[in-house]
């Protein structure tokens, strides 16, 4: 919460002490505390969110609304074309298929928050995957070791790109475009003339996408854990904000948000149980999503990412001050 002291200091000269009488009492009386409007929205609850939503719509700040509407339209069209599109089997298969792309998307969010771009993520992920497959199938390495090597290779490639960008000063667009082409060629070279390698569907890598928790309690239990953790995190966060004297969400707002999450979570659990059960890939993706969200919102590193994305020069001056 910030306080505007401009009006309170109106009419004072630098030589005057801070407790000198105010020359313009009318202006001083009209001075108000400046509060971040986002905090007021949080304090006003649902009414505040509705007012903020209308303000953003009038200002053209659509946010994620076009994406949500687009997905809804796509689902309606495909359901009309094929009545099985929204079936439990198809939705379960879609959620498993999107995990790989989703993991890459979560990582690229960090780059976008910095105000940069990375064109090489597809080629880097392909190169790391090809390396894991070759080590497992052709070289006979244990799958868990091959996976660790692939992760380390991806991290090393990212560090190499970061060196060219952060140390040598090359533009991120040029560095990652070159990486896209180079690592794509590297992947094709590693895979060999055939261009494909068949993994064991019963092995560790295969089980990451094919294993499901068939017990109905697994999906419903995960839903209970997600809802409970969300409520506790929101409730305790509001308590800390109240103790610090800053605006916080009303309890009714927290309960409503928790209830909406519970509806979505248990509906998803019911849908999974109508097919084979809860996919392991979905659990891994959710855990990764929650972990990265925590890093961005609750750690010093995450705050630095947001700060650098807002203004590199301001962040540099803040550190050097």
TrEMBL record:
Chain ranges passing through the membrane: 62-81, 93-114, 121-138, 144-165, 172-191, 211-233, 254-272, 278-296
Residue stretches of biased makeup (Polar residues): 1-10
Family matches, as Pfam families? BPD_transp_2
Location of the region described as Disordered in the Swiss-Prot/TrEMBL record:
1-22
UniProt keywords (A-Z) are: Cell inner membrane, Cell membrane, Membrane, Sugar transport, Transmembrane, Transmembrane helix, Transport
Topology within the bilayer: Multi-pass membrane protein
Q: Where in the cell is it found?
A: Cell membrane
Coiled-coil regions in this chain?
none
InterPro entries (UniProt xref): ABC_transp_permease
Domain of life of the source: Bacteria
The free-text function statement in the UniProt record for this protein reads: Part of the binding-protein-dependent transport system for D-xylose. Probably responsible for the translocation of the substrate across the membrane.
User: What protein name applies here?
Assistant: Xylose transport system permease protein XylH
Organism from which the protein derives: Streptomyces cyanogenus
């Amino acid at each position: 919460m910030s306080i505007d002291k401009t009006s309170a200091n109106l009419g004072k000269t630098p030589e005057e002490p801070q407790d000198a009488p105010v020359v313009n009492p009318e202006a001083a009386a009209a001075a108000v505390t400046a509060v971040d409007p986002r905090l007021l929205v949080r304090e006003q609850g649902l009414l505040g969110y509705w007012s903020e939503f209308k303000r953003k719509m009038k200002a053209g700040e659509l946010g994620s609304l076009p994406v949500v509407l687009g997905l809804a339209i796509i689902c309606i069209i495909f359901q009309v074309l094929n009545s099985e599109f929204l079936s439990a089997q198809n939705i379960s298969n879609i959620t498993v298929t999107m995990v790989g792309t989703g993991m890459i998307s979560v990582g690229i969010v960090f780059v976008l928050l910095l105000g940069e771009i990375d064109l090489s993520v597809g080629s880097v992920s392909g190169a790391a995957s090809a390396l894991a497959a070759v080590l497992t199938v052709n070289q006979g390495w244990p799958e868990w070791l091959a996976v660790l090597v692939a992760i380390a290779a991806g991290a090393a490639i990212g560090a190499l790109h970061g060196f060219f960008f952060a140390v040598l000063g090359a533009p991120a667009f040029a560095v990652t475009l070159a990486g896209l082409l180079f690592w794509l060629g590297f992947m094709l070279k590693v895979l060999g003339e055939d261009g494909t390698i068949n993994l064991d569907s019963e092995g560790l890598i295969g089980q990451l996408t094919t294993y499901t928790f068939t017990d109905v309690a697994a999906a419903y239990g995960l839903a209970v854990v997600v809802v409970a953790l969300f409520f506790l995190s929101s409730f305790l966060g509001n308590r800390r904000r109240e103790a610090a004297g800053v605006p916080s969400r009303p309890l009714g707002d927290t309960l409503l948000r928790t209830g909406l999450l519970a509806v979505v979570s248990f509906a998803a659990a019911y849908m999974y149980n109508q097919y084979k059960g809860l996919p392991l890939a979905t659990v891994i993706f959710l855990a990764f999503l929650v972990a990265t969200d925590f890093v961005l919102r609750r750690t010093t590193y995450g705050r630095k990412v947001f700060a650098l994305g807002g203004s590199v020069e301001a962040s540099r001056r803040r550190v050097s001050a």
